[in-house]
User: Fold this.
Amino acid sequence: MSNISGDTEPMWLEFSRRASEAVTRLRQAGGEGVGYSLKEPVWRRDKTVLYRYLPLPFIQAARAQPVLISYALVNRPYILDLQPDRSLVRSLLAAGLEVYLIDWGRPDGSDRGLELNDYIAGYLGGCVRHVLEAHGIEALNLLGVCQGGTLSLCYSALNPKRVANLVTMVTPVDFQTPDNLLSKWARHLDMESIRQTGNLPGDLLTGLFLSLRPFRHMHQKYVALLDQVTDARAVDNFGRVEKWIFDSPDQAAAAVAQFVQWFYQENRLVRGTLELGGRRVNLKRIRQPVLNIYAQQDHIVPPSATTALRRCIGSLDYTEHP
Amino acid sequence: MERTAPPGGSMHPEAAFAAAMERFAQLLRACQNESNRATDPGQAMQSLGTRLAAEGERWLRESASALAGWLSPPGLAESAGPWFRQAGIPPLAPSSPHPRTLDLLTRWIHLQAQLGILWNTVARSASEKFTERVGTALPDLEMRSIRKLYDLWIECAEEAYAATAHTEEYCRTQAELINTMTALVLAQRQHAERVAGAFGLPTRSEMDELQSQLKALRSGLHADRERGRKKAKRKKRGAGN
Assistant:
């Protein structure tokens, strides 16, 4: 680097050009729909809807047991089917699986009393029962993503006979590992008082997640986009993920308070002290094959939080895939 | 058959992008100014580090405004944040000096100042790291060089932030700030409930109670239906045998 204090006009012109191009493309990316694969609602209770994805045209018939996807409450599930070439749902369909997805909906004031057990025993349980009956089978494949994986673990421990295979993706299990900043921040919160104030706004959660790494997630990633403005596809991808990040539903007051208190503050799942609907959630009852997929650079669910699953479950058929 | 499109929250990526561009433009200006003034490049880089520290602290305050609903009590901040907007809570009137509310506001100011000190620590530490790593030469005033400098600054800032944000002091201060805010909201709500009660309107507590009764009723109804369904299934199986 040398000290040049000469004409700076080209630098400013380049910056303005790239920034305006990026913002134009971002707006265009926002105009397109998300959630590409065709699906139909097959069951609903309150705001929760169970969708069944239609088989892909080139797949003749489903070859295996159905898979039910349980996504997190804190984000929208369309990230799993963001675009044709970036779709977990499509990959599962292409593998010949019958795919179901739970959409928990967007809680409003009338849902503030919903508890975790309403989600697990009521909605998740209702979806499982529907799929089992629709296919005339005793057990299905359950795929839980992020917080949805934690809910799936609870369900599987309470209803082991209904789950043939369990797949967890970026799923927190031990909520108090040393590198878990979110957990440290949550440790001293007065959740009972927070519950009384009503549903937790989704925007607040988005802000909380972004502030775990504020310089990278609120600054650098946008500046890095300036390097890609000529690549329309890259900007479209970025725009879609951004829309998803900023699209967090409000959280039902009682459920989110229980989740923070029982999991983050008291770490009940790994301590074996979690009770739902009067029944203890014993992860040792999970004896079916388990595949645990996690991300190595995840700051919200650090690898240490998810790999703890190995020592907590009773399954002898456990595979980890980073 | 449905395809899903998100309605989107009140936060928008375009706004976040615009804010980040504004901050990047500030960095470009800072580099330009230092470059124009520089007689001693080493001193110029140190001066740039100091400027960036001040900017970094401001960025942190702005980032925290994303949590404004927790971190700013109504009536004190210009923007009350999503929580209050959603709750439709009116700002605290200055003429409502209930002792409990005043205590909470005092505590909130104290905690906010404490958090400000911690942000200042982050910014200073980031500046020190940056000055150590950047060397003494000013960058060429073109995008590629400035980007390198910017990425180095972000790396230093993120490291400094992580070192502080993981401390017990930071976690406790932030949590207590949120708890104090929550207590303020609940104090206001109590006041609102008294007013509602005086006008014969249903209060939040009464609504919660009704909601809870309704939920229990629905749950019982659902359990009855399930029992009936299982009974019918057993009967059908029995008839089949």
